[in-house]
Amino acid sequence: MAPQLVSLLERALVWESAVGWTPECLDEGPSMLPRYHNAGFSCLSMTIGADWDRPEPTLRHFAQQRRYFENRSDLCRIVDSVEDIRAAKRDGKLGIGFHLQGASPLGYDPALIDTWYRLGIRWMILCYNTRNPLGDGCHEPENAGLSLLGRAFVAEANRVGMLLDVSHAGIRTSLDIVELSDKPVIASHSSARAIKNHERNVTDEQIRAIAAKGGVVGINSIGAFLTDDNSSGVGAVMRHIDHIAQLVGPQHVGLGLDTVFYQPFMTKLYDSGPLMAQRGYPRPPWADVKPEALPDLVEALDRHGYDETAILGILGENFLRVAAQTWRPTQQRTDA
Question: Can you tell me the distance from the alpha carbon of 311 to that of 25, in angstroms, rounded to the nearest whole number?
Answer without folding.
Answer: 30
